[in-house]
Write a structure and sequence with these properties.
heterodimer, A: mainly alpha, 5 helices, B: alpha/beta
Chain lengths: ~150, ~170
């Protein structure tokens, strides 16, 4: 009984930190895209995945989804839904980066800044980072209790 | 037990819709009000000219684009237009379209008087920058059209297309 309580306490602390790290990461990642949607649209175009008509719409909306879910997770508004969206976004980012790495298409990740170089190595690191974040996101979704 | 799980799941989905709806509405309103906002649809077809997200502050006028390197070659041979390279001076020195003069966009403020004295406002000009992804020649076109230049065209494919098609390149000696 006591052991279970201690384990729950540790899980609560871990969940708190994952919420904070994922939330801050998504809020931070949204800023430069909101500030310069033109540059973000060019990054999306560079991925060569989205249909041309949808590029601007994604460039306008995706950063605000990142911002909303970041705040939502930290402030506890629909935290399970926020975790679900974060996991879906990370899954799509992983697919996009992975697909381009496999086909050898040069692109700039544009994840946390527009100044990053479009070197395969930095994109592999982005992929690994997103995989870790997705793992944390799935753990978070399973751990947050529905109110 | 299963019913409780379903209830939890449907609440999560409702939350997803609520958050996405809030984000979409905020994004559209913010983009509409922001000076750095972009059009809902950009110009991403390379066949139609320079690609751009069509920002509010610097919309691209693709009607002045010339897409064919062959046509540019003809323009140069027949001396129909003054060719202006708007890329950085160092890049120009490494290689440029023959007969082109260098007026980099980045030093426009320092050089526009010199440009006014060498190229008359009624002279037909053709601008280019690095590629179809570069919007500098359009920014330059806006600036000189505001200064009274009336016949301005942009070679949308820029230096990259010129080089890819195998046309002659002029280099400045060291």
């Amino acid at each position: 009984m006591k052991l279970r309580k201690i384990k729950n306490n540790y899980t609560d602390i871990l969940v708190f930190f994952i919420k904070l790290i994922l939330g801050i990461s998504f809020i931070y990642a949204s800023f430069h895209k909101i500030e310069n949607p033109e540059a973000f649209a060019k990054i999306l175009y560079g991925y060569g995945i989205l249909p041309n008509f949808s590029i601007n719409l994604f460039a306008i909306v995706v950063p605000f989804i990142e911002l909303t879910v970041g705040f939502s997770l930290i402030l506890g508004w629909f935290p399970r839904s926020a975790a679900l969206i974060i996991n879906m976004l990370l899954f799509l980012f992983i697919l996009a980066i992975g697909f381009n790495l496999i086909r050898g298409h040069q692109f700039d990740c544009g994840c946390f800044s527009f100044a990053s170089q479009n070197q395969p190595m930095s994109n592999i690191l982005s992929l690994v980072r997103d995989l870790f974040m997705l793992g944390a996101g799935v753990f978070l979704y399973k751990s947050i209790k529905a109110s | 037990m299963i019913d409780k799980k379903n209830k939890k799941g449907s609440k999560d989905i409702r939350g997803v819709f609520a958050l996405v709806f809030f984000a979409v509405v905020t994004a559209v309103i913010f983009n509409h009000m922001s000076p750095s906002g972009i059009a809902l649809f950009g110009q991403w077809e390379t066949q139609k000219g320079v690609v751009s997200a069509n920002p509010k502050t610097n919309p691209i006028n693709n009607s002045i684009d010339i897409h064919s390197a062959q046509l540019v070659s003809k323009i140069i041979k027949e001396k129909q237009r003054t060719i202006i390279d708007v890329r950085a001076r160092e890049v120009f020195d490494m290689g440029h379209i023959p007969t082109a003069v260098s007026f980099p966009l980045v030093t426009f403020d320092d050089n526009f008087l010199q440009m006014l004295s060498t190229i008359k406002q009624h002279d037909p000009v053709l601008l280019y920058c690095s590629s179809v992804y570069c919007t500098d020649s359009h920014s330059f076109a806006d600036l000189i059209m505001n200064m009274g230049y009336t016949d301005v065209k942009v070679f949308s494919g820029g230096f990259d297309q010129w080089q890819e098609k195998g046309y002659e390149i002029e280099k400045n000696k060291e």
